[in-house]
Amino acid sequence: MATDQSSEYEGTHDSNVDQSRRRFLGTTAGVSLAALAPASASIAAEADEDTITIVHDTHFHGRFRDAGADDLNIARYYTVVQDILEDADNSMFLGNGDDIAPSLLGLEYEGEHMIEALNYMDLDAVGVGNHEYDFGADVAEERFEESEFPWLVANLLTDEDEPVPGTERWTTFEVGEHTVGVFGLVVEGFHRITDYPEEWQVLEYVESSQEAVDTLREEDGADIVVCASHVSSGVHFTLAEEVDGLDAIVGSHSGVVFDEPQIEHGTIISEFGDEFAHVGAITIDGEGELVDWQRVDLMPEFWDPADEVDEYDEITTRALDDIEEDEGLMELYEEWQVPLDDELEQPFFTSETDLNGSYDNYAVETGFGNLMTDAMAEVGRMGDIDVDAVVQNGGGIRAETTYEAGEISGSAVMETLPFPNEIEVVEVTGEQLIDFLIGEQRPHPSDQFGTQPALQVSGISYEWWGHEDDHGIDDEWYRDGDSAIANVFIDGEPIEYDETYNLASNDYVIGRDPVLSEAEVLLESGQFQGPWVLSILEEWGEVAPEREHRMIRVDEDLGSAEVYDNDDTVDLEFAYPAGGEALLADTFRAVIRTGDALEAHDVSDDGDTVTVSFDAADLEALASSVDDPVLRVFGEYEADNDAWDYGFDIPTSDGYDNLKLKASADDGAVLEAVSDEDEDDDPADEDEDDDPADEDEDDDPADEDGDDGPIDEDDEPDDDVDDGSPGFGPFAALAGGAGGAYLYSHVRGDEEDEPDV
Q1: How far apart are CA 463 and CA 437, in angstroms?
Q2: Of 665, 676, 593, residue with least CA distance to 627
Q3: CA distances from 333 to 74, 411, 644 (A)
Q4: Which residue in 632, 628, 619 sits closest to 561, CA to CA?
Q5: By the 8 A CB rule, do 633 and 665 touch?
Q6: For residues 482 and 555, is the Cβ–Cβ distance under 8 A?
C-alpha cells in the first residue's frame, strides 16, 4: 500500500487542487504517547506465582481514537490495560501489529506517533503486522529501531536468511518462575499486500512456527511458548493441530472478537478484536493450561452492550465516562492528534446521504465507494485525459464507520482513505478489464468473509457471482474457476474486448495486479487518494451519493423470463430459485443497462414459478428510455442452506442478509407487451370487445388460460447484447464550477441490500 511519496507529476496542474495538501501539516511533532488495552474487572481466579496473565491485542492502525467515537481512545484503553496488569502477580502485555497504519495519523506521521505511544505503554513485545510496511521497508526499519521493545516475526527473512531489519524472529522473557517464549507470525501474502522487498522471503506458517517453538524450548529454555499472531483467524486452527509445543496464540490479522478463548489440540486461541473497543487477557499456568480469562468492552454512551455479554462472568462492560484517561497518553494526544484536528475537523463539504466507509466496501456497492471513485476520475484533468473507468480496492476504504448525512469534515475523508497510495491512469483493453474484475472477486468457499467483489467502481457496471457450483450460470458469463461476471458495461455501453479504455486506480492496485501491472501507464499523478478526493469534494460542495447498480450480486441466474401483458401490468415469469426458501417481495426490481430501475408492483410464486408484475406505463418508460435496454429482474430470497453444500450457512458476506436472483427479459417482448397495453387503453378500442374479430382472437389456443399469452421472442430481431448487467448512472457532473453541487442520478425505487450508503 506504499508508494514513492517523493514523486510528483510534472505535467498540467489544476489550481483548484493543491498538491501540498498531500500532507496537511508541514512538520511533525515528537512526544511520547500512551499504551493501549482495555480496563477490566480483576482476574476471577487470583493468580499465584505459578500463573502468568497475558494482556494482548493492539492492532491500533496508527489511530489514537476510534473513527466513530472520539471518547473511545488510546488513553482510556491503556487505563484498562493497566488495571488488568496490576491485578495479576505475573503479567505481560503483547501487541499483534498493524500499529503504525493505516489512518490519517499514520499517513501524516508515518508511524512516529505510534512508536512514542507504544514505548510509553511499556509493551513487552509486538508481533509485526502487514501495515508496518505501508511506507516501505526503510520506514519500517526506522520505526522498529526507535522502539524500546522487540518487534517479532518468525516467517519473514531477507534474501540472506536474516531476520528483516529491526526485528527478531523470537525472544524469551522471565515472568515469575517461568521462561516465556514469544514469536510473531504474519500472513503469507505479505508481498501482495505490503511494500515488502520482492527479494525478501515469506516462510510457510507451520514450518516457521515449528522452528520457532523448537528453538525457544530446546535452545532458549522456554517452558511456555506464545505466538503473537498477525495471521487470519482460520489459520490458528491449523497451527494448533500441526505445531507441537505451542501453548497459546493471541491476536490475529482478522480483528475477530471471541466470546471466550478456544482450546484446540491443547493450544489456547484468544482473539479479542483490534483498536479500542475490547481488552482481552488470558491467565495460564506453568503447564500452558488456561486458568482464567477476561474481556472488557469499552462502551461509548450510544452503544448497547452485546446480548451475549451476560452469558459470561468474564466479560464485563465499562462506560467510557467511568474510565479515567491516562495523562501521559493525553499529552501525546495533544501533541499529535490536535494539530490535525484543527486543520481537518472543520466541514469540507455537505452530503445529503450517509457515507458508508466501513468494511462493507469489500462486499457491496456503497454510496461512498461511488463518490470517491467518481472523484478519482477527475484526475484525468491533470493530463488532459478522459478517464473511462475507475477501480478501487475495497481494503483501501478503512474508516470502519458510517458518517451521517450533513456537513462532512476533512478528517472523515482522510480517515477513510488513509493509505499513501497515488492515483494513476493506465490504458487497458476490454479483455484485460474483464480479467481484472474476475481476478479481484473473492468466491465461496475459499474466502472466510464470504463471496465479495472486493472493489468499488466508477464508469463500470457488471453482475458478479462466486460459488463453487453453477446454480444456473451459463456460457454467457465470463468466468475463471469459481469467479464469474456478466454483462459488463462501460459508461452504460457494452464492453468491447479489443477496445481500449483509460482506467484510473491507485498505484498499490496497479503495481500488484498481474493484469494492470502490464498495462501502459498514461498518468502518474503524484496525488495521494485521500487529499485528492477531499479536494474534489470540497470543490463540488454538495453531494448526494447513492447506489447505482454498478455491481450487482447474482447467486442464481434463472435464464429468460416469459413476458405477459395483463391489464395495466406486465408480468415476467421464471423458475423458482433452486437454492431459495422464501422470496422477499419488496426487493424485486427491473434494471436496464444505464442503471435506471423500477420497483416491482407485485411478486408471487407457486413454489415452481415466480411472477413479477410491473406497472405497464412505468415499465414502458424504463424500457424505451434507451436503445437495447438489456432489461433484467433482480430480487432477494432467503437461502435454503440444505441446497448449498458448503457446510455453513450463507450468505456470509458483510452487507448481505439474503441471496439474490436474476432473470433476463427480452427487450422486444417487453416493449411489445407494453405497446399492447397502450392499445388496450385507447378510447377508440373501448367497444371492440363485441367485434367478431376479437372473438376469433379469444379462441386462440395461446390464450386458453385467460391472458394474452407469452410474447413470442422469435418474432423479435436478435439482440447482440448479452442479457443483463447493472447499468451505470451518469458520471459526476459539476454544476456551476468550484462551489457547484454534485448530484448523483437517482434510480427509481429504493436501493438494494443495505440502508447505509
Answers
A1: 10
A2: 593
A3: 9, 16, 50
A4: 632
A5: yes
A6: no
- H or E element: which one contains 537? helix 529-540
Residue-wise burial string across 572-610, b where 16 or more C-beta atoms lie within 10 A, e elsewhere: bbbbbbebbeebbeebbbbbbbbbbbbbbbebebeeeeb
pLDDT tens profile 609-636 = 999 999 999 999 999 999 999 999 999 9
Residue type, 434: I
Q: 500, exposed or middle or buried, with CB in 10 Å at 0-12, 13-18, 19+?
A: middle
Q: Which residues contact 748 (CB under 8 A, 6 or more apart)?
A: 596, 597, 598, 599, 618, 622
Question: Cell triple for residue 436?
Answer: 481484472
Cβ–Cβ < 8 Å for 391, 509: yes
Contact present, 121 and 79 (Cβ < 8 Å): no
Distance from C-alpha of 370 to C-alpha of 551, rounded to nearest angstrom: 11
Distance CA 294, CA 384 (A): 59
User: In this model, does residue 517 exceed pLDDT 80?
Assistant: yes
What pTM was estimated for this model as a whole? 0.72
Alpha-carbon distances, residue 290 vs 176, 286, 294, 540, 707 (angstroms): 17, 10, 11, 57, 71
16: cell is 483548484
Quick one: average pLDDT of 141-152? 98
Q: Are 294 and 315 in contact (CB under 8 A)?
A: yes
- What residue ranges define each of the domains in the chain, with the CATH number in brackets? 40-336 (3.60.21.10), 345-551+731-742 (3.90.780.10), 556-715 (no CATH)
The contacts of residue 689 (CB under 8 Å, 6+ apart) are none
Straight-line distance from the first to the last Cα atom of the chain, in angstroms, rounded to the nearest whole number: 25
User: Nearest-CA neighbor of 510 among 609, 324, 376, 634?
Assistant: 376
Instruction: Write the CB contacts of 86 (distance below 8 Å, at least 6 apart in sequence).
Output: none
The angle, 0 to 180 degrees and rounded to 10, between the axes of the packed helices 112-121 and 137-146 is 30
- CA angle at residue 501 from 500 to 505, to 5 degrees? 140
Element (H or E) spanning 523, and its range? strand 520-528
Please report where in the chains the cell 494482556 appears, as a residue.
Answer: 55
With the C-alpha atoms ordered 150, 156, 162, 164, is the resulting torsion angle positive or negative? negative
Please tell me the distance from the alpha carbon of residue 288 to that of residue 531, in angstroms, as a whole number: 49
DSSP letter (8 states) at residue 714: G
> From CA 310, how far away is CA 313, in angstroms rounded?
7
Quick one: 524 exposed, middle or buried, by C-beta within 10 A (0-12, 13-18, 19+)?
buried
CB 230 within 8 A of CB 253: yes
List, for residues 274-312, the tens digit of each pLDDT value. Answer: 899 999 999 999 999 999 999 999 988 776 665 445 557
Q: Model confidence at 747, in pLDDT bands (50, 70, 90)?
A: very low
